[in-house]
Design brief:
Radius of gyration: 20 Å
Number of strands: 20
Distance between the termini: 13 Å
Helix content: 10-25%
Largest sheet: 9 strands, mixed
Order of helices and strands: EEEEHHEEEEEEEEEEEEHEEHHEE
Shape: globular
CATH class of the largest domain: Mainly Beta
CATH superfamily of the largest domain: Acetamidase/Formamidase-like domains
Structural class: alpha+beta
Oligomer: single chain
Strand order of the largest sheet: 1-4-16-6-13-17-18-20-19
Strand content: 25-35%
CATH architecture of the largest domain: Sandwich
Amino acid sequence: MTRNRFGTGPAPDFAALPILQPGVFPPGAEPAEGVAYLPASPETVLWGRLPGRRDAPVLTIASGDTVVIDTVSHEGILPDQGQDPAAFFAQHGVAAEAVLDDAIAIASRAPRDAVADGPHVITGPIRVEGARPGDVLRIGIERLEPRVPYGVISNRHGRGALPAVLPRDGQTVSVFAPVEERAGALCGTLPRTEGGTRDVAFPLAPFLGTIGVAPDSDERPHSVPPSDFGGNIDIRLLVEGTSLYLPVQVDGALAYVGDPHFAQGDGEVALTALEASLRATLTFEVVPADVARREFGALAGPLVRTPDYLVPTGLDPDLGEAMRKAVRAALDLIRARWGMDEHLAYAYLSAAADFDISQVVDVVCGVHARIREADFPALAVAGGAGA
């Protein structure tokens, strides 16, 4: 598998990309034997809330199992867009057969409180046998397939990095962005002026904005703010070939995914990324508490692993405090994993690590650090959790 099929190397022929309706797989792309398939339907999703500890799993798997999961974007199904995806996308020239059937079903049948709940459609929860509080759940991102060749970027209700400034009228601005193949890569496209030629193109780098485990609470958390259990972390590094590590909060972990993106810039400043539905192939592995502690120390929140970087995170409503939390998490990781003295680890971070803003629009801001593993001695950890 390549690290990221989008934007590097030969891209698939756009004309050959199918519409991935629920339960429909292109020839030869069916899930392998032993790989479960979890569709998105009113029975398998939550709309606007994340699972809590009392939610019944929609799928139960063993540690190490791989699952193909359909996710549905909230763009085109929300009330301020008409809550009718067929009609919404028809305005942009999308044929009825190219609108996802599960999006239509969720918009019409899945319960959501338009005032109290968030916008995101969440598939799950998935129970992972053997996961216990204190363990860590590794979720490996094996494959992310666009289900449709279009997406939407929205700035709504005066939110984003410039609240009360944009959008100018305080209402919803939803920008439709078709996907095209250009220079051998799939790209999102935009015009420079409303109604003009789509001569602006940016590469796709699909990832799931929301990946999490259930908190130890009877309440279902709102889908917007991320937390130590993951959720809407919006870290765009989570492309194919990477992993997310989450501290398990409840027996079985009760994992879930959603908020699929085709592309996002760090910060996600307008409020949303290029939002569009994905089919995700993920592997779920329980990392026992003692192994996780040897590899990463006391993991208090989400940790990303790419082929090159370990990526600790900081989350807080205040961006400055989110930055400070990310620095502390990075220091703790380096000290636990490589035994580096604190003042030397601090110096290393200042000289060699990047701290990126994940997003500033989800009530709780996110900052993540990129620590190159190649800068440190290789570790031989018995029973370690690889990326």
